[in-house]
């Protein structure tokens, strides 16, 4: 499974793992892949500083990456602006009424009311500043190319930059902006994703950017066979996400994990939906009573990012706290149909590598 990216990043396997859990990221890096910590959940830099310090100390000196959420076009954010005032009352009322209909209780006073500030451009920049004080080898941006000055700053610190792309034209734009690695995010993927499936998208992007730009295949990858397929399509590695939600280490992220585990272990590959209700941009989520409520006749259209994030932030906190598998709101890809048990990260990694080797040997047997 060794590709040039292994030498470039000092890893054993070209398996990149996006996760909001530092415990998962550390375990992936220790197992020979590259754990990439998602930063959007951090509302303040102090918590991120502590988390990255923990990663520094718990990866056995192995490399790791950091994922930020930063649009290339810098929005004008006004200090002191009450962002909630930009959210229509109709949407607030819909969320309140839906939570009541679903039987979701309120949070204790003072909890979960700050919104998801990590989606704001200014906060994402603070995440980058904190990250560069530590030792990530990769900064990935979930919204395509970050601003040029951000890319330059990463390069000045010797850090590579990756960006997600859902079309060949987006990948070419990223390369022109100075991005080093393209993540070809297929339709099957969890979270923000485009409209083209991985089987078509990966070779499209590989051919568009040429042999000098590494591409990571993403979307629908949860087995060694799928890793082999992605490399066969021209990728130099894989970007994985959903499969790490079903690991023992992920449990450290929340005390209320039992509902999520029930939801994904019983789900099939048909039990996801691509919708804008989570962030305001198209994202694939687990299909639940919450997502179905937004699809009902009379429901308002989701707001643009970041207003939709701020609108539903407290609702998502309440849903998590309710521990109800029929309502849980979680980005996950179509690979969820294969996530039918909870296992340690090391076991998942070992199975990915072993099945990849078996697949390559089987394919070798077909050669003339």
Structural class, by secondary structure, is alpha/beta
Percent range of helical residues: 25-40%
Count of domain modules: 1
Examine the secondary-structure arrangement and name the CATH architecture: Alpha-Beta Barrel
The profile of the biggest β sheet is: 8 strands, parallel, barrel
Q: What is the CATH H-level superfamily?
A: Aldolase class I
EC number: 1.13.12.-
GO molecular function: monooxygenase activity
Protein name: Nitronate monooxygenase family protein
InterPro entries: Aldolase_TIM (IPR013785), NMO (IPR004136)
What key phrases describe this protein's structure?
single chain, 368 residues, alpha/beta, TIM Barrel, eight-stranded parallel barrel, three-stranded antiparallel sheet, globular, FMN, NMO, flavoprotein
Describe the protein.
The protein has 368 residues and is an alpha/beta fold. The chain has one domain: Aldolase class I (TIM Barrel, Alpha-Beta Barrel), CATH 3.20.20. 39% of the residues lie in helices and 13% in strands. The protein is built from 13 helices and eleven strands. The protein has helices at residues 4-9, 22-30, 45-57, 89-101, 121-131, 148-156, 168-177, 198-209, 224-232, 258-266, 289-295, 307-322, 345-364; strands at residues 15-19, 34-38, 64-68, 138-141, 160-165, 181-185, 191-192, 215-218, 237-240, 272-275, 283-286. The strands form two sheets. It has an eight-stranded parallel β-barrel with strand order 1-2-3-4-5-6-8-9, surrounded by six helices. It has a three-stranded antiparallel sheet with strand order 7-11-10, with no helix packed on it. Helix 4 (89-101) runs parallel beside helix 12. The model is unreliable at 76-80 (pLDDT under 50).
